[in-house]
Design brief:
329 residues, alpha/beta, FAD/NAD(P)-binding domain, 2 domains, seven-stranded mixed sheet
Length: 329
């Protein structure tokens, strides 16, 4: 069986950037993902426009061309497909990683595909860039797994003239509430804190605050969700318990890396921050040969790392590997 110089876990921008840097350095790389290419971006709201400019999403020095000042979700997905094609990257999509065995220089990755078939891949090094969007922060209340409760927002059309509850108080929740309101939904925003999050985009904040002030969107603060049902959401605040009618609820309370998976690889996590133990100069973890890239480095602080800075982690990893190779000659 062939041996890859590096196997990247995760086919998002960071994983792809790592594979590209490896290819540029003359290494053979493989990228494995349990979902589709750039699975997180694929699951973003359908009409989403990125906050950042196109050059800050670029990998492999390939230009991202977009129609307006900032790229859309559709334009970004097209761009990353083209990056894979341009560099002829080897990908294994829709394969779940079941296990990792071996040690530095001789790892074996076991996967299972959606049809149940199993595969094994050999790699000298491993780069973990699995992101965090697959795992929402659960509220832990009854009914959270009902069909009319989602931790992802897609589009507003089905909720025209319907009652919708949006749980959360940061960017995702604010933008979803505004989009739903502007497309005819009756929106109630529920947030456990006394005010909206401090990191809300500067142009979104006055919009959502003014909509709430004008009672075009109902804002309930210092309020927690107790239960979801097929027809309503049970909430509680200083006024007591009440039921909010809800055709659909969006619990947009954030996401987190797969800490269980990371620890299963032998990587140590800080007890408080859940940041992994690693060398900041090479991004190699406490396990020799296993490197970390992208948002998984941030632990609980997922807002510290975005595509804009995570895309450079691959170069850091590959540069450290090429430097070692040259020193060993």
């Amino acid at each position: 069986m062939d041996t890859y110089d590096i196997i990247c876990f995760g086919a998002g921008p960071t994983g792809l950037a790592t594979a590209i840097e490896a290819r540029r350095a003359g290494m053979r790389s493989l990228v494995i993902d349990k979902g589709t290419l750039c699975n997180s971006i694929f699951n973003y709201p359908v009409n989403m426009v990125f906050f950042t400019t196109p050059e800050l999403l670029e990998i492999g020095d390939l230009p991202l061309v977009c129609a307006a000042e900032k790229p859309t979700r559709v334009e970004a997905l097209k761009y990353y497909r083209k990056c894979v094609e341009h560099f002829a990257l080897e990908l294994r999509l829709f394969e779940l990683i079941e296990g990792l065995e071996g040690s530095d220089g001789n790892f074996t990755v076991s996967t299972v595909a959606q049809d149940g078939s199993k595969q094994k891949y050999h790699g000298k090094k491993i780069a973990v860039a699995t992101g965090y969007y697959d795992l929402p922060n659960m509220l832990g209340v009854p009914g959270e797994d009902l069909p009319n409760v989602s931790h992802y927002y897609t589009e507003p059309h089905p909720y025209w003239r319907q009652d919708v509850v949006v749980v959360g108080g940061k960017n995702s929740a604010a933008e979803a509430a505004l989009d739903l309101y502007r497309n005819g939904a009756r929106v109630t925003m529920v947030h456990r804190d006394a005010e909206l999050g401090s990191t809300i985009k500067y142009w979104v904040r006055p919009d959502i605050e003014n909509r709430i002030k004008a009672k075009q969107i109902t804002g309930l603060f210092n309020t927690r969700v107790k239960e979801f049902t097929d027809e309503y959401v049970v909430i509680e605040n200083e006024s007591g318990e009440m039921r909010l009618p809800a055709k659909q609820s969006f619990a947009l309370t954030g996401y987190h890396p797969d800490y269980t998976f990371i620890k299963s690889l032998g990587v140590k996590l800080d007890e408080k921050t859940l940041k992994p133990e690693l060398n900041p100069e090479t991004l190699e973890s406490n396990v020799p040969g296993i490197f970390l890239a992208g948002v998984v480095i941030g632990g609980r602080h997922t807002s510290e790392i975005f595509i804009e800075n995570g895309r450079f982690h691959g170069k850091l990893i590959i540069d450290s590997l090429t430097s070692r190779a040259q020193a060993a000659r």
